[in-house]
Amino acid sequence: MYPAVVNTLFGKGLCPTSQSELREFEEHFWKYDEDFEYASQMPECFLRHPAGCDINTQGSSPGGGCTLLQHLLDNLQGKHLAPSYGLLMLWASQANAVPIAFWTLVFILSDPSVYKKIMEDLTSVFGSAGKDEIEVSEEDLKNLPYIKWCALEAIRLRSPGAITKKVIKPIRIQSFTIPAGDMLMLSPYWLHRNPKYFPDPEMFKPDRWKEANLEKNAFLDGFVAFGGGKHQCPGRWFAIMEIQLFIVLFLYKYQFVLLDAVPKEVKDLCLRIAQVGKDLKDHRVQPQPSHPTPTLTALR
């Protein structure tokens, strides 16, 4: 996913894609990650020789038009911030799309009926699976809506992190007034498990997305993975297309088998952490430094 996306957004040659360049990239990344708070001072390392490259030349797409990076730079007020915005765009295009593509594959393979339907859809569009190369057009993706539904359902179940907003003006909600300057946090994880909007919320059910008006860029009510209102993630449809295209190519060319069952989420731990936080706030319990800190292991 990485080479295709960075070449599309940045133009060929601007971001590392070869093995040697990626090794150098990794070295810079670890140095960058160790001092993340100084991010704005060192993102130049993520662009290939930025001082010596002509962004107007390398920022062009194969078809002769401008890349998204070039459009960004053309409208940027502070040109010195270009590397920081470039790094932000690189992170935004990869950080969530890659793990969601993984979970989409996992959920599809964990349900034989879903997997069978997808393979039937792929065969109807491209013929028998297993060809060395295929070209996937926008029209092809429109004829494969079920894969898009699978991606959206995986996003619903595995939305990472939280969404924060700063209060600009005091807001009154029921009997509470939230003052300006406070930060509000939204949890997609819990909202996406509200049975009012998503019946059987823990189940992977791609067909629920049949009710969404995706042709008019509208999600299901209660779906907030990309934020809400007019300030939703501007790259949301690119990300969904990216995941959909990845799934098409992978499942068409290769046959997969899950080695392990989909792991169950540790809900009790989440609830316990929330309760401990409430107890600490209410001074009902005190932290115990002598107790070992719980460790969360990454799921495969």
UniProtKB/TrEMBL annotation:
Keyword terms of this UniProt record: Cholesterol metabolism, Heme, Iron, Lipid metabolism, Metal-binding, Monooxygenase, Oxidoreductase, Steroid metabolism, Sterol metabolism
GO biological process: bile acid biosynthetic process; cholesterol homeostasis; cholesterol metabolic process
UniProt cross-references to Pfam families, sorted A to Z: p450 (PF00067)
Keyword Lipid metabolism appears in the UniProt entry: yes
Domain of life assignment: Eukaryota
Entry binding sites for heme: 233
Enzyme class: oxidoreductase
Gene Ontology MF terms in the entry: heme binding; iron ion binding; oxysterol 7-alpha-hydroxylase activity; sterol 14-demethylase activity
Catalysed transformations (reactions): a 14alpha-methyl steroid + reduced [NADPH--hemoprotein reductase] + O2 = a 14alpha-hydroxymethyl steroid + oxidized [NADPH--hemoprotein reductase] + H2O + H(+); 32-oxo-24,25-dihydrolanosterol + reduced [NADPH--hemoprotein reductase] + O2 = 4,4-dimethyl-8,14-cholestadien-3beta-ol + formate + oxidized [NADPH--hemoprotein reductase] + H2O + 2 H(+); 24,25-dihydrolanosterol + 3 reduced [NADPH--hemoprotein reductase] + 3 O2 = 4,4-dimethyl-8,14-cholestadien-3beta-ol + formate + 3 oxidized [NADPH--hemoprotein reductase] + 4 H2O + 4 H(+); lanosterol + reduced [NADPH--hemoprotein reductase] + O2 = 32-hydroxylanosterol + oxidized [NADPH--hemoprotein reductase] + H2O + H(+)
Pathway where it operates: Steroid biosynthesis; zymosterol biosynthesis; zymosterol from lanosterol: step 1/6
InterPro entries the record matches: CYP450_sterol_14alpha_dmase (IPR050529), Cyt_P450 (IPR001128), Cyt_P450_CS (IPR017972), Cyt_P450_E_grp-IV (IPR002403), Cyt_P450_sf (IPR036396)
UniProt entry tagged with the keyword Iron: yes
UniProt cofactor(s): heme
EC number: 1.14.14.154
Family from the record: Belongs to the cytochrome P450 family.
Name of the protein in its database record: Lanosterol 14-alpha demethylase
Organism: Pavo cristatus (Indian peafowl)
